[in-house]
TrEMBL record:
<feature type="transmembrane region" description="Helical">
    <location>
        <begin position="150"/>
        <end position="176"/>
    </location>
</feature>
<feature type="transmembrane region" description="Helical">
    <location>
        <begin position="71"/>
        <end position="92"/>
    </location>
</feature>
<feature type="transmembrane region" description="Helical">
    <location>
        <begin position="6"/>
        <end position="24"/>
    </location>
</feature>
<protein>
    <submittedName>
        <fullName>DoxX family membrane protein</fullName>
    </submittedName>
</protein>
<feature type="domain" description="Methylamine utilisation protein MauE">
    <location>
        <begin position="1"/>
        <end position="131"/>
    </location>
</feature>
<keyword id="KW-1133">Transmembrane helix</keyword>
<feature type="transmembrane region" description="Helical">
    <location>
        <begin position="113"/>
        <end position="130"/>
    </location>
</feature>
<dbReference type="Pfam" id="PF07291">
    <property type="entry name" value="MauE"/>
</dbReference>
<keyword id="KW-0472">Membrane</keyword>
<dbReference type="InterPro" id="IPR009908">
    <property type="entry name" value="Methylamine_util_MauE"/>
</dbReference>
<keyword id="KW-0812">Transmembrane</keyword>
<feature type="transmembrane region" description="Helical">
    <location>
        <begin position="45"/>
        <end position="65"/>
    </location>
</feature>
């Protein structure tokens, strides 16, 4: 069970970090996406976007390295509920044409009920991690003197498997995008 928890922890941490990094790369575009949701007053957008990015990157890094895990899982749950609520509000308003603004590994998609279900699945995954929390492979374990929970061959194996899974997922996403571009190019050349 510790292996599965560590695997999911690496995935979750990487998901949050990749999302934040993507948004930081084009902060102006991301701010416009949040504005399109038409939930927050315009004067709060600047502060909200920066606060959310700090929360995402901090949560992702702390989950990835294993610091303050129970608290970080609760923050991840809160963020996932926040995203789900914003998407649901806009879907109920009939607004499907805007980008979700997810970024990173999650990608950017137009709003849909599928995104709501995906976000709820991630929320329940975060909550399960909170309930099943282990310090296996975490800095919390190292700092509390449980070196065998940190310096363990199985910990390294799970981290390597997690990273390979992430790389394979990213490569398949890139190959799918390349396939679409080639297909579009063929159609325009006809």
């Amino acid at each position: 069970m510790d292996e599965l928890i560590l695997f999911l922890r690496v995935m979750l941490g990487t998901l949050f970090i990749s999302a934040a990094v993507t948004k930081i790369g084009d902060l102006e575009k991301y701010t416009l996406i949040i504005k399109e949701y038409k939930i927050l007053p315009e004067f709060t957008l600047y502060l909200f976007v920066r606060f959310k990015l700090v929360a995402e990157i901090t949560t992702g890094v702390f989950i990835l390295v294993g610091l303050y895990l129970p608290f970080m899982y609760l923050i991840a749950c809160f963020l996932m509920l926040l995203y789900t609520l914003a998407i649901t509000i806009n879907l109920l308003r009939g607004r499907r044409e805007i980008s979700c603004g997810c970024g990173g590994m999650a990608g950017n998609h137009q709003l849909s009920w599928t995104l709501t279900i995906r976000n709820l699945a991630i929320f329940f995954g975060c909550y399960w991690l909170y309930l099943s929390s282990t310090d296996w492979g975490s800095l919390d374990a190292l700092f509390s003197g449980q070196r065998d929970h940190f310096f363990h061959l199985e910990v390294l194996q799970v981290i390597l498997i997690s990273m390979l899974t992430l790389i394979m997922g990213t490569m398949s996403k890139l190959l799918f995008a390349l396939h679409k571009q080639i297909k579009n190019l063929k159609e325009t050349l006809k």
